[in-house]
Amino acid sequence: MPLSLRHLILALMLALVSATLPAAEKHYTVSAPDGVQIAVQESGNPAGPPIIFIHGLLGSHLNWTQQQQAPQLQRYRLITFDLRGHGLSGNPQQEAAYRDGKRWADDLAAVINNAQARRPLLVGWSLGGAVITNYLAAYGDSNISGAVYVDGVVELTPDLIPAHPQVYSAMTTERLGTHLDGERAFLRLCFYQQPDRVTFERLLANAALAAWPMQRAVPTMTIPLEQGLKNVRAPLLFIYGRHDALVNPQASLARARSVNPRIESQIYDDSGHAPFIEEAPRFNRQLAAFAARYAAPQRAQ
What CA–CA distance (Å, rounded) separates 75 from 230? Predict the structure, then answer.
């Protein structure tokens, strides 16, 4: 075989192998308007349509590991970040830094702007759903391609949030042992199908990183539902686990649809509060299908 042809074949093989390898993860921080540093992570295809994942209370970007590793999502630019008071992000010690929902919306806007993510698809779990609603209220939906609420908190009202007074009281106590026991109990309530030991221990470590002032303040966080959802024209998908012990699925869907009847929905029969972990293959397929319909290509405007 001529040398030039061998070089050409080798170059084509290297190009093919490179195209199949996952892109290296990217980590950086962005500054919120009030100065809080927000830790951001990226994986997947850096040139693909962007999907931004927003975790829930006591979590971090590690909650989305099964989505970051899903083969059907690798064509997308997968962006995660740690909410204020969580993970590797800044932990303000004043409860006021967490009560105003717009601060959380501003964090998300800072991630979108600094990542230069053109019309991302937003995916928010639990508290992450409240962050999306606050973002929509403050910034509208013109800069996103759609939103997926995963057992999303619609409003912090007794008819939508089942009472677990002993758990929530333990989580906010000053006694360290009781506090950690409360967080463990909270995490157990997240699942109908309990995760494996390694996954649960990682989630528990996530919870231990969460700022105490944030945990005390979040129950009074503002969520302007009417302002956030009423005029949204971007596609909205609400996914709930039928056995959710932390959010009332049917009541939450009914309340959200009373504001925006265009909302699509799915109920996962074998999940609790975390269907993206409990039924990850189904969730990943559905997210990939939703993204294929609506996610915007990453190109200059």
Answer: 32
Phi, psi dihedral angles at 289 (to 5 degrees): -65, -40
* 150 touches 129 (CB < 8 A): yes
Q: How far apart are CA 66 and CA 43, in angstroms?
A: 12
Q: How many residues are there in the chain? A: 301
**pLDDT at position 3, please?**
38
DSSP the chain: --HHHHHHHHHHHHHHHHHHSPPPPEEEEEE-TTS-EEEEEEEE-TTSPEEEEE--TT--GGGGHHHHT-GGGTTSEEEEEPPTTSTTS---SSTHHHHSHHHHHHHHHHHHHHHT-SSPEEEEETHHHHHHHHHHHHH-STT-SEEEEES------TTTS---HHHHHHHT-S-HHHHHHHHHHHHHHT-SSPPPHHHHHHHHHHHHHS-HHHHHHGGG----HHHHHTT--S-EEEEEETT-SSS-HHHHHHHHHHH-TT-EEEEETT-SS-HHHHTHHHHHHHHHHHHHHHPPP----
Q: What is the pTM of this model?
A: 0.90
Beta bridge partners of 51: 78, 121
Confidence of residue 127 (pLDDT cuts 50, 70, 90): very high
Which of these, 164, 177, 171, 147, lies nearest to 273 by C-alpha position? Answer: 164
177: exposed, middle or buried (C-beta count within 10 Å: 0-12, 13-18, 19+)? exposed
Q: Dump pLDDT digits (tens) for 195-225.
A: 999 999 999 999 999 999 999 999 999 999 9
